[in-house]
Design brief:
The chain is α/β, with parallel strands linked by helices. The protein has one domain: P-loop containing nucleotide triphosphate hydrolases (Rossmann fold, 3-Layer(aba) Sandwich). It is built from nine helices and five strands; from the N terminus they run E-H-E-H-H-H-H-E-H-E-H-H-E-H. A five-stranded parallel beta sheet has the order 2-3-1-4-5, with helices on both faces. Helix 3 packs parallel to helix 5 and helix 4 runs parallel beside helix 8. The longest helix is centred in the C-terminal third of the chain and has 17 residues. Bound molecules: adenosine-5'-diphosphate (ADP) and cytidine-5'-diphosphate. Adenosine-5'-diphosphate binds next to helix 1, helix 7 and helix 9. Cytidine-5'-diphosphate (CDP) binds next to helix 2, helix 4 and helix 8.
Length: 212
Amino acid sequence: MIIAIDGPAASGKGTLAKRLAAHYGLRHLDTGVIYRAVAHALLNAGTELTDEAQAAEVALTLDPATFDDPALKSQAVGSAASVVSALPRVREALVSFQRQFARQPPGAVLDGRDIGTVICPDAQVKIYVVADPGIRAHRRTLEALSRGEPADEAAVLADILARDARDQNRPVAPLKQAPDAYLLDNSHLDIESGVRAAIDIVEAVRAGRQRV
Ligand SMILES: Nc1ncnc2c1ncn2[C@@H]1O[C@H](COP(=O)(O)OP(=O)(O)O)[C@@H](O)[C@H]1O
Ligand SMILES: Nc1ccn([C@@H]2O[C@H](COP(=O)(O)OP(=O)(O)O)[C@@H](O)[C@H]2O)c(=O)n1
């Protein structure tokens, strides 16, 4: 089974994807970390984020061992990722890695922006996760503070909104809900309730039921 989870920044995609993967015994890929790794490498090399040839080269030679680097979690790297992720050659370079990951048995949960629309359009289950921007900014601020990083909620909100706009308006693989994706608004759900709602969606799809 392949489960595709998409949605805007800090909507809770990764949390749900990890929990669904554990629940169903599937592998998990946070695809955002791939774009973050490309951006981080370019920032470290002092390369312009819009240098498409260099960015594509970095994407093609990316080492998945770098995906665990805690530096990838910063707001600055997230913003840079949304600039490089708009470059068509960067996206093209990363498609086959993601598809191969998804196809290996017993299946996988992938979370990102274009999983249900581009990477795994045939995924058995697609969930589009949203939450109010202010709530997302609050959660992301708490997350940064818990890592010991200074975070200003207003600045985090501005960053999230700018990133969402860039991701939604790019010509290639823009962030949008796939027509066959289920919408899950977790603004007012705690993590456990969100996970239960996501499992309910998966179970309804597996049972061939339409969810109301
Ligand atoms: N339903 C929820 N209630 C409260 N906090 C949440 C909820 N879902 C996620 N979070 C927290 O919000 C932050 C962003 O969640 P995350 O799963 O990383 O989002 P995304 O992968 O969409 O960026 C994390 O700190 C996470 O623990
Ligand atoms: N499948 C994906 C995943 C991420 N991205 C880009 O990478 C950036 C960082 O993604 P992320 O999922 O780590 O961001 P958060 O939602 O965790 O803040 C996004 O803002 C997108 O620009 C993408 O274009 N396609």
